[in-house]
From TrEMBL:
Similarity-based family: Belongs to the glycerate kinase type-1 family.
PANTHER family registered for this protein in UniProt: GLYCERATE KINASE (PTHR21599)
Gene source species: Rhodococcoides trifolii
Lineage: Bacteria, Bacillati, Actinomycetota, Actinomycetes, Mycobacteriales
Alphabetically ordered keywords of this record: Kinase, Transferase
A GO biological-process term: organic acid phosphorylation
Protein name (record): Glycerate kinase
GO MF terms, alphabetically ordered: glycerate kinase activity
């Protein structure tokens, strides 16, 4: 019996990772009903991280929080024992901006901190935070405020939310930080090594993607410089600029450590245990391109499988990378929805149907199983 491990990421804007796995599994079963198929969806630390943990058996905990500009958001985190997995994108991410209107100076990470506080109050002693998809550049100030910190101006008043106000910060008061936050360990799942400041920093590289114009970029860089001088932590630390500097605040005050997003998720879902008995791994994402080689889920999955000598098949919406390039990561065959349906809109709309077709093709294409027991 062939045992197949399905570990795709989402096809963004089309189908979730769990839906990709389900469609592929249905197709494979129709092609060869004797296959033993294990679905273990993954993510790269951004949106879908909590869903991946839940699909692997973690408990989902629902909680109300506030979005990047203060609007109510119904979100969730994953919990197993004393460990919680929190996802920035599902609380204060770009996708949660009301009507999609950016607020570069006023958006904050306060809502992320609210979710973290809920997990800590419920008994979590270790918190993993996926940092992808941030809508703000506030240096993690909002996160810290939600955990009990106060950021005051020269007259002792609390500053407004958002990175733009941090130019006026005169005092960081940590006296009210939750005792549970002081005692907990924090791990940040992200794949950027940007510092907080400068031409490669949080503002210069990422704030334009969050709607900041030239004048706002100047304000935010000044704010981050002032914030760094107030906090007193090394602004050149690798990864400090992740998620608009959220990593900086978490590293400085919470003692957070940074780890690759996909490596973190693979550990959370116990991928390596499942891999030990797999004959074939199938992974993928919406677009398999050059960016995939820099911390994205499919290449992380393929690399782990290749190390264990398990062949890998990729399935994606489109493939830009050459098959030879993918072969370096143990990929023996690649399929793209665009090969079946060139029209992008139609491919997105009927992704599940196309995935089922590809699943059946995989199950009936014996040439890809050379070396598979």
């Amino acid at each position: 019996m062939t045992r197949v491990l399905l570990s795709p990421d989402k096809f963004k804007g089309s189908v979730t990772a769990a839906e990709v796995a389900a469609a592929l599994a249905a197709g494979m079963t129709s092609g060869d009903p004797t296959w033993d198929i294990v679905s273990l969806p993954v993510a790269d630390g951004g949106d879908g991280t909590v869903d991946a943990a839940v699909a692997a058996g973690w408990d989902r905990v629902r909680v109300w929080t506030t979005g990047p500009t203060g609007s109510p958001v119904d979100t969730s985190y994953a919990r197993r024992g004393e460990v919680a997995v929190v996802e920035l994108a599902s609380s204060v991410g770009l996708g949660l901006l009301p009507s999609g209107v950016p607020d570069p100076l006023g958006a904050s990470t306060f809502g992320l901190g609210t979710v973290v506080a809920h997990a800590l109050t419920a008994g979590a002693r270790s918190v993993v935070i996926g940092l992808g998809g941030s809508a703000s550049t506030d240096g993690g100030a909002g996160l810290l405020r939600a955990l009990g910190a106060r950021i005051l101006d020269a007259e002792g008043h609390d500053l407004p939310e958002g990175g733009g106000s941090l130019r006026e910060a005169a005092e960081l008061d940590l006296a009210g930080v939750l005792p549970a936050a002081r005692a907990a360990t924090f791990q940040l799942a992200c794949d950027v090594d940007n510092p907080l400041l400068g031409p490669l920093g949080a503002t210069a590289v990422y704030a334009p993607q969050k709607g900041a114009d030239a004048e706002q970029l100047l304000v935010l860089e000044q704010s981050m410089m002032h914030w760094a001088s107030l906090v007193g932590y090394d602004s050149t630390a690798s990864g400090a600029g992740a998620a608009g500097g959220t990593a900086y605040g978490a590293m400085a005050v919470l003692g957070a450590t940074v780890r690759s997003g996909i490596d973190t998720v693979l550990e959370l879902v116990d991928f390596h245990t499942q891999l030990q008995t797999a004959d074939l791994v199938v992974t993928g994402e919406g677009s398999l391109d050059e960016q995939s080689l820099h911390g994205k889920a499919p290449i992380g999955v393929a690399t782990a499988a290749h190390r264990c000598g398990v062949p890998v098949v990729t399935v994606s919406g489109r493939i830009v990378l050459s098959r030879d390039r993918l072969a370096e990561y143990g990929v023996v065959e690649s399929y793209a929805l665009s090969d079946l349906e060139p029209d992008l809109g139609t491919s997105i709309r009927f992704a599940s149907t196309l995935l089922r077709r590809i699943g059946r093709t995989i199950a009936t294409s014996t040439h890809i199983f050379e070396g598979v027991s």
